[in-house]
Write a structure and sequence with these properties.
This protein is an all-beta fold. The chain contains no helices and six strands. 0% of the residues lie in helices and 68% in strands. Strands 1, 2, 3, 4, 5 and 6 form a six-stranded antiparallel β-sheet that branches.
């Protein structure tokens, strides 16, 4: 199994990604199958300051393009980070 991910910094606060997993069947080493297609976007709302943590959102959509796949999955994450000094 080989995960593949391509990331692109579209704008200063926006990162876009596309990825999949390449699968090979051990019984037939010549056969290559692909996994589901994952599309993602990460947006940074603000950078960390002394008073505020950094915050952003990440949206991931998993499209059923792989072998024996069904249904589209959508995931939304809120991200908050603060450095400890």
């Amino acid at each position: 199994m080989v995960p593949t991910l391509l990331l692109y910094g579209a704008l200063p606060k926006l990162q876009l990604g596309v990825g999949t997993t390449l699968l090979t069947d051990p019984s037939e080493s010549d056969e290559v199958r692909s996994g589901d297609l994952k599309l993602s976007g990460l947006y940074d709302f603000n950078q960390e300051t002394l008073a505020l943590p950094a915050s952003g959102f990440k949206l991931t959509v998993n499209l059923p393009t792989g072998v024996a796949s069904s249904g589209t999955d959508v995931e939304l994450k809120a991200l908050v980070t603060k450095s400890l000094q």
